[in-house]
Structure formats: structure tokens, C-alpha cells
Design a protein that fits this description.
It is built from 8 helices and 11 strands. It is of the alpha+beta class and 296 residues long. It has 2 domains: 112 residues, 2-Layer Sandwich (Dihydrodipicolinate Reductase, domain 2); 127 residues, no CATH class. The strands form 3 sheets. A 5-stranded mixed β-sheet has the order 4-1-5-10-11. Strands 6-9-7-8 form a 4-stranded mixed β-sheet. Strand 10 and strand 11 form a beta hairpin. Helix 6 runs parallel beside helix 8. The longest helix has 19 residues.
Length: 296
């Protein structure tokens, strides 16, 4: 197809922007958190340094964090769209972004310990595909650093150690337990994605899908929307604060999703995202040109 090379150019731009330019809703939340901290406090100093980092990364066209993370792409494509072509263009864009320094050489062979210079390997980058009725391609990217990924945890309910039964209060106890145990590790203030139900694999995947949501949105399920508000308030009352040094802001958002489950299982999967909440989306034409940005 004439002009198909636009996909590689557009996907490269998606990777570049995701790496260097923090989304505005996240920056706004960080600035609000900074304003809430006491003058002269360690929390205010940490958040001030983070905001300076955000500005310098944008100004200098440099990665927000030295750990450019694991890449997860989510594509929504029309019926009969050539996904093999899209995979090839995505890999080419990632390879170029790595070569130009927008991505660190961040992919390791788990058996040999050898690194991949292009970040292209079995399972890297991660790509998910969904069909949509629109005549466009939606391309979304999440960059998730290793430190915050290490803070993820999965609970099987009932859990007598934390007093969590198979209900929404049990879910609440799991989320607060995960945040309390993290103690600011994973580069707080962060964002928490949660899946209620599913199996062990789909639970973690759906928890991470919550990171494609905006910070100021709410769950369309009323019970989950109420629980999101409650958990955000309770988590920030823990006093853990930025980087675990104390303060009024431990998390900037808590996003809940739910999947059906088998009768014998009740999993609560918790995924943690650092302050460098790097996610972007672009709406592409069928030739690969960028029509608009889905997340600014």
C-alpha cells in the first residue's frame, strides 16, 4: 500500500513522546501534590525534583527515567487489517528508538543473561490486538519500569492473614495491604491498577490495562467508582508519601477493573505504576498517518 511507511514513522513518534513527555493529567496531579506538601518538607523537596525532571526531559528531548521500562502496545484495528505488517512496523520503530537513545537497551535473555541491543526479542515488545468497528488504527503504549513492576502482587481470597473475605471489603484490604507493603518503593507517588477476578494470567493483564485510563476518570460501575474514591483517600492517609519519606500523597490514582472468575478462585491482582506514568495513545489513519493524539 502506498504510504504504508507512515506506520513506522508514526509509531516511532509514539515511542519517543511516551518516553520523554509526561502526560498532562499526570503532571497536573504531581503539581497538585507538590502544593499540598508542607514547605520545607522532604515530600515537597522530592516532588520539586520530580517536576524539574519532567521539565528537563521535555525540554531536552530525553527519557523521563533511565529505566525506559517494559513496552506494552495495545492496538485496536479494523476487521481484516494486516496485523503482521503492524508487528513489523512496531519492531522497526522500537529498534530505531533504541538506537537513538529514547529507549534503553532494556531487554534481557532470561536463560543466558545476554542483552538485546534493539529491544526486539521473544516477548518484547509486548503487543495486544483488538478489533474495532472504526476505520482507523488505535495505537496505545505503556512504558513500565522494573522498580514499580516489582511491587505488583496477587492475592487469593479468602486471605486470613489480612482479614480479606471474598467481597469488596476484602478487595479493599488487599489494595491497602499492597500499598502499605510497598512503603514508597517503586518510586511513589504512584498509580495502582487492580483487577478483581479473572485467573492468574488475565488478572495481572487486566490490572495493567487500567493504566490506559485517565487519572480523572472513574469506573462506569458505581460500586467500583465508590471503592476507587475510598481507597484513594485511605491510601493517602497512610502517610507513606513520595519515595516513602512521608507526606500527604502516596498514590495519585487507584483504578479498579473486574473480570468473571471460576467458583473456586477469587484473585485480586494489583499492579503498581511509578510517578513516571508513561502512557500515550494515537489515532492513526489506514496509511499510518497520525490523525490525533488520544492522550496528551
Amino acid at each position: 500500500m502506498k504510504g504504508i511507511a507512515d506506520f513506522e514513522r508514526s509509531l516511532f513518534e509514539l515511542v519517543r513522546r511516551t518516553s520523554v513527555d509526561l502526560p498532562m493529567d499526570v503532571e497536573t496531579s504531581l503539581r497538585a501534590a507538590y502544593a499540598r506538601q508542607k514547605k520545607g518538607s522532604r515530600a515537597r523537596e522530592v516532588l520539586g525534583t520530580i517536576l524539574e525532571n519532567v521539565e528537563l526531559a521535555r525540554k531536552n528531548d530525553a527519557p523521563l527515567c533511565q529505566d525506559t521500562g517494559t513496552m506494552t502496545f495495545l492496538f485496536r484495528v479494523p476487521e481484516n487489517f494486516d496485523t503482521n505488517m503492524l508487528v513489523a512496523k512496531t519492531r522497526a520503530a522500537v529498534s530505531k528508538a533504541t538506537r537513538l537513545g529514547y529507549l534503553r537497551q532494556n531487554t534481557i535473555d532470561s536463560v543466558t543473561g545476554a542483552g538485546y541491543e534493539t529491544n526486539i526479542a521473544h516477548g518484547a515488545p509486548i503487543m495486544h490486538f483488538e478489533q474495532c468497528a472504526r476505520k482507523v488504527v488505535e495505537a496505545h503504549l505503556l512504558l513500565k519500569g522494573g522498580g514499580c513492576e516489582n511491587m505488583g502482587v496477587q492475592y487469593s481470597l479468602p486471605n486470613t492473614k489480612i482479614g480479606a473475605d471474598r467481597d469488596l471489603d476484602g478487595v479493599r484490604r488487599c489494595v491497602l495491604h499492597a500499598i502499605q507493603n510497598a512503603q514508597g518503593a517503586g518510586c511513589a507517588p504512584g498509580i495502582v491498577g487492580v483487577c478483581i477476578g479473572g485467573d492468574r494470567a488475565t488478572g495481572y493483564a487486566h490490572a495493567k490495562e487500567q493504566f490506559f485510563r485517565k487519572l480523572d476518570d472513574k469506573s462506569p460501575v458505581k460500586a467500583l467508582a465508590r471503592l476507587e474514591r475510598m481507597l484513594l483517600k485511605e491510601a493517602n492517609e497512610l502517610g507513606i508519601g513520595p519515595m516513602g519519606l512521608g507526606g500527604a500523597t502516596t498514590v495519585m490514582g487507584i483504578k479498579l477493573g473486574a473480570l468473571s472468575r471460576a467458583p473456586a478462585s477469587f484473585f485480586v491482582s494489583v499492579s503498581y505504576m511509578c510517578w513516571a506514568f508513561r502512557r500515550r495513545g494515537a489515532i492513526l489513519g489506514l496509511r499510518g498517518d497520525i490523525k490525533r493524539w488520544a492522550c496528551k
